[in-house]
Input
Amino acid sequence: MDLSAAPTKLAQLGRAQFDDDFRRKLQALMVWRRDVRRFRTDPLPRGALEQLIQSACLAPSVGLSQPWRFVVVDDAARRRRVIETFTVCNAAALQAYDEDRQSVYARLKLAGLQEAPCHLALFADLESETGHGLGRQTMPQTLEYSVVAAIGNLWLTARADGIGVGWISILDPAEVSAALDVPPSWKLIGYFCLGLPDHDSDIPELEREGWERRHPWETFVLRR
Output
């Protein structure tokens, strides 16, 4: 789907377009979204990554600042540097847990950096003048939140297209920024593996492995 004319197409949609069937499918999409770590090595379909980035850029952003910056990491040497910082950080993280947790942690697959055909880093440009500073004076971190919203768009669109996404957070942001040689005003928000998943599940791997369980939504609501 070409999203280049998306604003025009969206303007033509009325609420009637979003019927009960669509809402059920949207809910199913969110249920089946997974943080994927096990990838096939097949390349992504031609143009798939570009379409995911277009979807991401439809996200809301504070003051229409559009602070997201996408770095597609194709260079093998840069990828190796990212994998090296993951290896160091992962070893340190393992030691931070007690013996029981270490045994579970050690069998978790926490990255798909070797197998995934696509690496994508998302940054927030903290010095972007787009949006003229609107909405950032009291909460400047909304620039970073805007990039997270873009990530949500990308993730759901990827799942709808049968593409797996894994967010790799066991990294040193400074090392990753240096490896990718980005401007100093860019702050790393997320580093992602993308590819075709080798299996699907509606249960997160961390839940399957007994690391944590999903809690009912009511437990997170406070009324005042």
